[in-house]
Structures are given as structure tokens and as C-alpha cells.
């Protein structure tokens, strides 16, 4: 999409051309099913590539290779972690603690577990989206079997104190899951140092293909399978392996491991410069979420007083700029963002929130175009708004 | 994404603004906090001037513009014919999009209710 300025990388990223190149042979040349590797040399070759990809994914989070299980993406990984742990540990307890700003894949999984008699408790978050580990400690009881806290929030960029929470869990023999969909490939993750028992990741958030992800399950963690069938992935996740996706995921992980630090520094630099321009040139815009190093490098979420986000986004789209919004009033369901609600943004203001999430293909030279068009459209919308006075 | 006529009116809305000392005004605020306000100058039962302010989605903005363009120079009895049915002649819309359309429509109908 070279003709557009793409600012919605938290929704999805473009696949790195090196990833595409790595995947291509696995469509029509190396297409065998790795499950038959004992009788087919073609399958064995594909199996080798799958295991190579698994090693790359393990490396990027510092896990053991056999602790990585491929899934169809982050949503499936979240479902597997939460439901898999809940059902296989029912004899120990039925309580799960999480936060109200988790991705819907976590929240809806938890609500589904409630129907089976699990008790779900939510630790509050503050106005920047941070959960206090000590608040979690106070909520733990003898019945707590799992705590799930996302590594970083997709809407407001808050990086949670997962190491402290992991330590709390490990000391108390409680499983700790983190949805790291927004951070794998962007932030250094060390599942060993951070006491993580389960972790969800998704390929299309770090320049890999859509429809592939993985769950990390620490060896020794008792988990029930979510997908039953042919017994692939040691029975944890049955189903013929998406070998092209897996190879792509592996390559994306390999590239991220090598280039992450430099890439994220560049993105952060652009993000900071962009925010400085927006703040200086558009009056009454307010950041949601934290400042500084506790915010993921690519994220800007801000309120534009006096206008609604949907017309801004549509008008920007016409000008070749694609960004994201807190809640679009005509989006499916019309529910305001639960994340923004949880950090105390007023309901009416939620529909004025814009999210910009940069990626490695954004350039500093785009800042002028972004700011110019934002200013023009905001001015037009404010001029017609009954909520705006100069 | 949106019907062509909706995009045209959204990107180039007609008759945006306020009227000082209008003959009548009407406003509507939606559940999600969007708002439209219509200002009318009526002389001899004819809409001589129609302006509006709106904070809403592209449909709401477009409908304000479409209504204002139609309403200018029309009689009260013609204005009272403006409805969802009237708008459906301009473009198709789903049930979900009705809330956006209602934002504009109900604000306008409020402005002519006393005539």
C-alpha cells in the first residue's frame, strides 16, 4: 500500500517481503503435510522448516523450543491459555484474576468461563492503564488458579509490570498468562526472567502473515487442549499445520530478533516528533495512556476535543491516511471502547479518540503530510461542530 | 464504504454554520453523544435560510447537508415531508445506519415542529 500513509499497525502490519519470499516455496513446491515425515522425504523437509520456525519463535521470547505451540493467531492462543488452564486445574480452584483492559479475546474467553462456574475478578487499572501488582496480591485467594495480564495494551500503549506480577504468581503457585500480541517482535521478552507460564503471540502484528500465532506453555504447566483431533503439536493443538504460515511466522521472528532494537528506536523517534507537532499545532488534544518508557514505542492515542473520530478517519482515508479510532459510532455493536472507559475517559469523549500506531515502514518524511491533513480535517470538523468554541 | 452521494455531501457539506436570531432552531443528541443543531429563517412560510452545526458520523453530516440543500426555498408543507422515506430516495441505508441519519433528521424535524 505504497500510496497511503498507514498508521494502523496495531490492527495489522504489512508482511515483510523477506517473509513472503520465505513462505512462497511452501505453497506449491514444499507443500507436503509434515505429519507424514516418517514416510515422505518431502514431508520431512517441511517438518524441518516448521521446527526451524519454532526455534525462531522460542528465541524471541527466550523459551525452550518444545514450549512453543502454533495456533491460528492471538485469539486462539488466548482461548487456549485461559480455557486450557481453567479446565485442567478445576480441582485446585475456580478463580481467575485479570484486568478490564484486556483484549476482547481474553475478556470474552473469561466471560465464557464464568458460565461454567469460574469466578472472574478484575484488578482495577489507573488513569494511565496500569495495574498495581499489590492490588492483585490482595485479590488472590486459595481458589485462584490463573492470573492473566496483557504485556502492553493495544489501544493506549501501557506496558504492564508483568515481571512483578509473574513473580507474585510463581511464589504462590498460580499460573501467569500474558497476552503479548502487541509486544512480541517489538519489546524484548524473557519468559524465564519474567516468570511467565503462558504467553500469546500473533504473526500479523510483527510483519508476519495473518492467521498464524503461537502459545508458549512452560514445561510442566498442566493445560487441556482446546482443539482436539489428529494430535498435532503434542496434542495441545490438533489440526494440520499451517506450514506456510508457520514458516512466515518463524521468519518474522528471526528478523524481529535481529532488527527489533533499531526498528523500535526509529519508530519511537517518529512517534515522539509526530506527537510534538500535533500538540503544538492542533489545540486541545490530550494523550490517553502513559508518557515515556512505559508506553509502547509505536502508539499514540489522543482525544481531539469537539469532533468525532469517525468522520476524521473517513476524511483522512480519502486523503490517503489510514489511522484507527477508540470507537466509531457506526461500527458494529456501537460499544464504546472498554479500555478507554476503564481508564476513566468520559463516554462522550471516547468517540473523539484517535489511535495512531506506527510501524517500521513509516518514515519521518510522512510527518508533514500527517500533520497537515490532520490539521485541515480537524479544522473543518471543528468549524461545523456544536461542541467547539475557539 | 459509503454511498457516493453521502461521500460528496460529507466531504463538501453545504450550508454549514449558524444563523444569528433564527426564526427557529432544533437539536438532537444521540445516545452516543453526537449532536446536530438546525437553524432556520422562515419568511412567509418559506425557508429563506437553513444552516446547521453537527458533530456526528459521515452519514449524519451528509444528511444535514442534503436536508439543508433541499429545504432552502421550500415551503413549510414541503419541509414537513422530509423523512426517512424522503432520504431513502437519495441513498440506501441499513437499520444500523438509521441512528446516524436520525441525528440529522430529528434535529431538523425539531426545528419545524412549531410550524
Measure the end-to-end span of chain B: 37 Å
Report the sheet-strand fraction of chain B: 15-25%
What is the N-to-C order of secondary-structure elements of chain B (H for helix, E for strand)? Answer: HEEEHHHH
Strand order of the largest sheet of chain A: 2-8-7-6-5-3-4
> What ranges of chain A have pLDDT less than 50 throughout 5 or more consecutive residues?
none
Radius of gyration of chain A, taken over Cα atoms and rounded to an integer in Å: 22 Å
| Class computed from helices, strands and strand pairing of chain B | alpha+beta
> Which pair of protein chains has the largest interface, and what are the residue counts?
A-B, 25 and 29 residues
Q: What is the number of E strands of chain A?
A: 13
Q: What is the molecular shape of chain A?
A: globular
Q: Give the proportion of residues in helices of chain A.
A: 25-40%
Integer average pLDDT of chain A: 95
Which CATH class of the largest domain in chain A? Answer: Alpha Beta
Key features?
heterodimer; A: 390 residues; alpha/beta; Aspartate Aminotransferase, domain 1; Aspartate Aminotransferase, domain 2; seven-stranded mixed beta sheet; four-stranded antiparallel beta sheet; 13 strands; B: 115 residues; alpha+beta; Sufe protein. Chain: A; three-stranded antiparallel beta sheet
Structure, described:
The complex is a heterodimer of chains A (390) and B (115). In chain A, helix 5 links the parallel strand 3 (95-98) and strand 4. The radius of gyration of chain A is 22 Å and the shape is globular. Helices cover 39% and strands 13% of the residues of chain A. Chain A is an alpha/beta fold and 390 residues long. The two termini of chain A are 37 Å apart. The longest helix of chain A has 39 residues, at 243-281. Chain A folds into 2 domains: 5-10 and 260-383, Aspartate Aminotransferase, domain 1 (Alpha-Beta Complex); 17-255, Type I PLP-dependent aspartate aminotransferase-like (Major domain) (Aspartate Aminotransferase, domain 2). Chain B is an alpha+beta fold and 115 residues long. Chain B has helices at residues 4-11, 58-71, 76-79, 84-88, 98-112, and strands spanning 24-29, 35-43, 46-55. Chain B has one domain: Sufe protein. Chain: A. The N and C termini of chain B lie far apart (37 Å). Chain B contains 5 helices and 3 strands; from the N terminus they run αβββαααα. Chains A and B meet through helix 9 of A and helix 1, strand 2, strand 3 and helix 2 of B.
